[in-house]
UniProtKB/TrEMBL annotation, chains A, B:
GO molecular function terms attached to this record: oxidoreductase activity
Highest taxon in the source lineage: Bacteria
Protein name: NAD-dependent epimerase
PANTHER family, A to Z: ADP-L-GLYCERO-D-MANNO-HEPTOSE-6-EPIMERASE, NUCLEOSIDE-DIPHOSPHATE-SUGAR EPIMERASE
Pfam families to which the protein is assigned, alphabetical: Epimerase (PF01370)
Record InterPro entries: DenD, Epimerase_deHydtase, NAD(P)-bd_dom_sf
Keywords associated with the record: Carbohydrate metabolism, NADP
Occurrences of domain NAD-dependent epimerase/dehydratase (ranges): 3-209
Length: 326, 326
């Protein structure tokens, strides 16, 4: 079985690759595990290849048809489409967001359709497809109402995938991811970047700016659970999904104040005091439009699960990233 | 004021043009009536020009950038975007539906953005954006779940327009139209074509095939009210719409059996007996996925209204089209 990860040099892409290589197989459309013989990592920069002969790294612009045609062929049985322009950047550069989040996603589906072998295709989507006056708990039948170009582009990609799946061009599925926290590394241009920064930087002995109020409620998932969910999501039986290919993933609903309390619990007062509160209206507007919780019963029935406590998420981060708490 | 109608040679386009020429003006963004000095009718075939010097007819492919650039300039203050591939045809020819219903709609928005003058742009959408397990009365916050490529393309165009409006590129609005009945003329490739045919043909002394069961519930609007709504919709104050530019238009919820009863009431038993019941699974699947009623309180608050009785709709059709009932 040949597997493709777009955004394969990114944080989630690299983790997913490592996990897939460790597992060695993925279930096919009949629920039967098939050995992964080739894992293609496509990105705009060269992905790490883990010194594994199954890995092939490709560098290219995913919005170019020839690039997609070079990495998707009739043997490509599973595609994890993670490449995206994040929320803050898609708001700042409208054309770039449209090109990658919309055009490239469509081109990927179209390339699969041309190949004609109906591969499994997993898209990731986001809390950002919701917005406006939301119920306390967003339901599966709550209308999408994106308040950012990123959210609009993700919502459009969902509709495209659903229709391509309904028509039998791909065996598609979309996972709406909670905000991922704690991400290792550096801040990025996502409006939600602070949701990792206010934990990661203080654990590292550094100050972190929190641009939203403490009462702001977030819907979070750890990188560890995100990777588990991506693999489980790709392996879900198509018949169980029917004509509705989009799933709201389980997460934890926490306020920023509760995140800070968890940080204090795990790493002490000193760490929590490294957070500098500097409200940023632009970030508050985007993040404040996202749901703080959604109904996850459908995902749970399909075998997907999230975490129980944010303090555990912080502990898992410390363990996974081998952090020396200062 | 310069006004553009895409799909200007179509049934609604021609009626809208006639009504705009009769009114002579449209309210601008300040609510002030402005004389219509030029009315451009764009379509793939030459539109009728009514022998009116204000009318300019243009023939072209709306998915071509140069065509849109030739009909939208900084003086184009209002655009009614009616051009579309109907539901049955978009299902039969996926690429054509994507090209006209999605690509052309996006190109139209993009052309406006490039011009930079923020015109009022009205898109029409459809019951077909809904589907799946629907509540008896679809609400404003009921999730879209299109079960046809036409519905998916319309839902995507809504999201695009909403985001272009939110970003200030256009002053956009989308009206979700009920199924229009009674349309004059000939059957078309819309899955809902029968909703006019089963009234129009019997009134004309001809047989008409009804491809769905009598219990099938439809959400209908007359052509007369549709045209009124398009104009009222374009004239709504942008501030009253805020960041949610999509409106579910008022209509009448009737079963096909009730439509036939209304036909009998207006034109007698003989007319009703000209309907031939021949279920067509393809049509039933598409039409059966549409809502039979939706909440219209928001549209009503904004001054839009529908009809009260389907018998009145038939009578209005007989009057407007000067039908001699046989």
């Amino acid at each position: 079985m040949k597997v493709l990860i777009t955004g394969g040099a990114g944080f989630l892409g690299q983790r997913l690759a490592r996990e897939l290589l460790a597992r060695g197989s993925l279930k096919d459309a009949h629920g039967k595990p098939q050995a992964i013989t080739e894992l293609v990592l496509l990105d705009v920069v060269r992905a790490g290849d883990f010194g594994d002969s199954r890995v092939r790294t490709e560098v290219g612009d995913i919005a170019e048809r020839s690039v997609l045609e070079s990495v998707i062929d009739e043997k490509t049985a599973a595609i994890f489409h993670l490449a995206a322009i994040v929320s803050g950047q898609a708001e700042a550069d409208f054309d770039l967001g449209m090109r990658i989040n919309l055009d490239a996603s469509r081109l990927l589906l179209e390339t699969c359709r041309q190949r004609g072998h109906k591969p499994r295709v997993l898209f990731t989507s986001s809390v950002a497809v919701y917005g406006g006056d939301l119920p306390d708990v967003v339901q599966n039948d709550t209308a999408l109402n994106p308040q950012s170009s990123y959210g609009a582009q993700k919502a459009i990609a969902e509709l495209l995938l659903n229709d391509y799946a309904r028509r039998g061009f791909v065996d598609g599925r979309v996972l709406r991811l909670p905000t991922i926290s704690v991400r290792p590394g550096k801040p990025n241009a996502a409006a939600s970047s602070f949701a990792s920064g206010i934990i990661r930087e203080p654990l590292n002995g550094e100050a972190a700016v929190c641009p939203v109020a403490g009462a702001t409620r977030l819907w979070l998932l750890s990188p560890r659970k995100a990777i588990e969910s991506l693999i489980a999501g790709l392996e879900i039986d198509a018949a169980a999904l029917g004509n509705q290919r989009v799933l709201n993933l389980p997460g934890i609903s926490v306020s920023v104040d509760e995140m800070v309390a968890a940080l204090r619990e795990v790493a002490g007062d000193e760490a929590a005091q490294r957070i500098v509160w500097e409200p940023d209206a632009r970030v508050e507007k985007i993040v404040g439009s996202w749901p703080g919780r959604w109904d996850t019963s459908r995902a749970e029935r399909l075998g997907l699960s999230g975490e129980r406590s944010f303090a555990d998420v912080i502990r898992a981060y410390i363990e996974d990233e081998r952090i020396q708490v200062r």
